[in-house]
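User
New here, explain this?
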Amino acid sequence: MTPPPPEPSTHDATPAGRPRGAAARVALAVCAALAFAGFFALGTWQVERRAWKLDLIARVEQRVHAPASEAPGRERWPQVNAADDEYRRVRIAGRFLHGKETLVQASTRLGAGFWVLTPLQAADGSIVLVNRGFVPPEARERTARAANEPQGETTVTGLLRISEPKGGFLRRNEPAADRWFSRDVQAIAAARGLHDAAPYFVDAEAAPSPPGAALAWPAAGLTVIAFPNSHLVYAITWYGLALMVLGAAWFGWREGRRRAGRTGGGTGENTAHADATARPDARRD
């Protein structure tokens, strides 16, 4: 007698398939958790950066509109820094060394041209570079604006600025060619043979002028104080991505549960069908 054929069963594929499916789900869950944690951390970091930026803006606004104080002297130069001193309104007195001025390329609301940086020598011999203002290309020569050069003892009021080393955006200063793209105090002082120079410069304020008066070169008071503050937008973006990851993970988990339920039901039906077809053979035996 021929032995009955083996009973068909769908259980043979299930044990091998389930571990692979479970491992894939675990891997996806781990990746989703890491992505959510990363996006959430970035969003929180942007919230903290926004708080820092708002505090910085408030501090700078207070400095700009505060009464002018004496500019940091030689004894304070090592402590001067951007966080505590930049944009502070200061006052300094001395004599301008017009023969050692430096022109630095600039782009302002008046157009493209140059900043005029002139050394101001105090009574104790120390020197502070003063940005006297902007001049267009046609006024770059001193002879075109000599009438506006302050002579003798002068007091300058303006905003303290931190040195700008290494040149401008994609443009390096060229001291040997006397081409300057940033207000690098140390490099300018070295190129002009200025000793005992302060590590900062001062943006001079515009002098009062009667209404309708012609603009005199250099034009001072063009300091732009702007702090980009897009941290809230960035925070919303990162938090939004974190929520998207969370939603995708929930959707994947739900679909996985559905498929597991459908697969389990189908397996039971096939097994019952296999048992029913196997019984007649058993009876024939």
Observations:
- The first strand starts at residue 69 and ends at 70.
- The helical segments are 14-64, 82-85, 185-192, 231-284.
- Residues 10-14 have pLDDT under 50 and may be disordered.
